[in-house]
Amino acid sequence: MDKYIACVWPRLEPFLIGVLPATPPSKFSMHYLRKMACYVRTRDGCFPRLGWHMWRHIACGKLQLAEELAWLYFETFDLLMPRSAEQRLEWAEALSQCHTPKELDRQCCKLSVDTLQFLLFLYLQQLNRISLRTSLIGEEWPSPRSRSPSSSSERDTKINSQNKNWDDQAHLSFIQTHLSELLELLVEPGQLSSSGQVLRDSQLTSEALESLSLLLEGSVSHSRTVHPIHKLLSRSPLQSQAGFSKLSRSYSLQQFQGFLHQALCLNPFGISTCSESGKKLAWALQVEGTLKKAKIFRNAHMAPPGSRLLLMSQVCKQTLAKDSEKLNNANIKLHRCSEAFIYLLSPLRSVTLDKCRNSTVVLGPVATSVHIQSCENVRVVCVAGRLTVGGSSHCTIHALTPTRPLLLPGNVSLTLGPFHTHYPTLEDHMASVGLAVVPNLWDQPLLFGAEVSATDTGCYRIQPPSEFYPLVIPFQMEGDNCEIPWGLPADYQKAVESREKTIEDWQKTVKEAHLNKVQRRQFQALVEQKFHEWLLETGQRQELDSLLPPALTPSTSVDHWPSSHASNSGPTVLKEQQPEQAMGRAPTVC
């Protein structure tokens, strides 16, 4: 029987991608979700799948949520679901064909979700609300400060900076603490007493168990093969342990709950294990000082799909570039990176920037979410299923996203601009994760929080075309794309063309001045002097210096990320990408 000992753990993605890193609506408490669980089983069009039309009716009519908030949760859950890239591209094309709000609503009503899994998803939003009083106030009873008018805003901001989406210890604790209520949501109404409590002899159907696979997966006796919980329990010995009855084809709720309490353990592919025993990516150059603290770990060599992680921590004053299959569909966390230039040009699953400052991050297409939290003066360039920003200041985000950017409490002086770069395999990478060119809602942010309104736009601005400059990725790569495939918005394209015309006019003026050789040398020296002064004043000199290529030898392992630690060192580059020769040159006098 020893070989049939089960290990069950919380899946990473429902917490990482599905839980919004903010305080959930108060109506997502168990009291209201219990009512919703009974309601959906007794209404047409609600069970076993819940359509947008009926969820809007429940959310707006019963739970008193705003329609845009109801759609936010519905859309987030759909983003979490395992759909093929082709299905997501077809959905994006259908949305792009909608020209009126009525047509858009008609299309949205075609979307439906698994009802029981959606109930679990809504309950999961409480992750960042648990132990709120203890974690934020540090005392059992509210303090005078907690009753101040701004306390709610301060609380939301602090929750955002301390969210538990990456904390696998918190995920396990949440499941262990709230297992009984999670299972109660899956029980049929007939299994409940008149007061709504679960009866002692309640049963859990096989369909309900399959819904629980949204949250739980596991293996048998530490096998490397990972199964969702319903497939794990397809083995007869484990079914017996979990209380399965062949006669009723269901599980005893009480016995099943006891089985899970014994089998639950920490996710072996979570951030804790990755940091402790994941594969450490070696550096070709190790030096004293800031680089000594830098850490990069990954678990792609051992983790199943959906659990592949890459952690980059305390990368400072370097340029790192990576284009590798080992990044494909990975969940990436950049933590406390400072004065760094990071290019991750592969199709990714999700990306989190946490406590980074004074850095530039350019990402390949991100299938689900890019979350920026507690960052300062960071520039992010991304194509993503969703963009979320909270507790950050003076950040600039150039994005292409089919969903409205979600701005959480605590943001100051954000700038939103259109996606403005390209690399040769960008379109192929977008197609592989199911992201299309349209719809693109980068300039229609949604402000989320208890004390914000749709008209409160003080925390962000749309980048004026006069401040817009396209970004050139300074590496030569193989591929077909040589320009932004979908072009720029008209106002921004006009600004770029106007600037190019100014340069052409300047070059023409210099040419028509008919300078002699001595004058040309003097003028060229003056231009170069002013150019280098500008590089120093703006901090661009550091980035250009870090692009000087290092000597990559054939013996360099594909897992080595060479570091650029000084002005004569270059970036980490895979496939021997080389910086363009023109980078760092002063304008030439014609």
UniProtKB/TrEMBL annotation:
Its main location: cytoplasm. SUPFAM superfamilies: C-terminal domain of adenylylcyclase associated protein. Signal peptide: none annotated. GO terms for cellular component: spindle pole centrosome. Residues 140-152 have a biased composition (Low complexity). GO terms for biological process: maintenance of centrosome location; maintenance of Golgi location. Pfam families: TBCC (PF07986). Residues 304-450 form the C-CAP/cofactor C-like domain. The keyword Hydrolase does not apply. PROSITE patterns: C_CAP_COFACTOR_C. The keyword Amino-acid biosynthesis does not apply. Residues 140-162, 547-590 are annotated as: Disordered. Gene3D superfamilies: 2.160.20.70. Keywords: Cytoplasm, Cytoskeleton. This is TBCC domain-containing protein 1. The lineage of its organism: Eukaryota, Metazoa, Chordata, Craniata, Vertebrata.
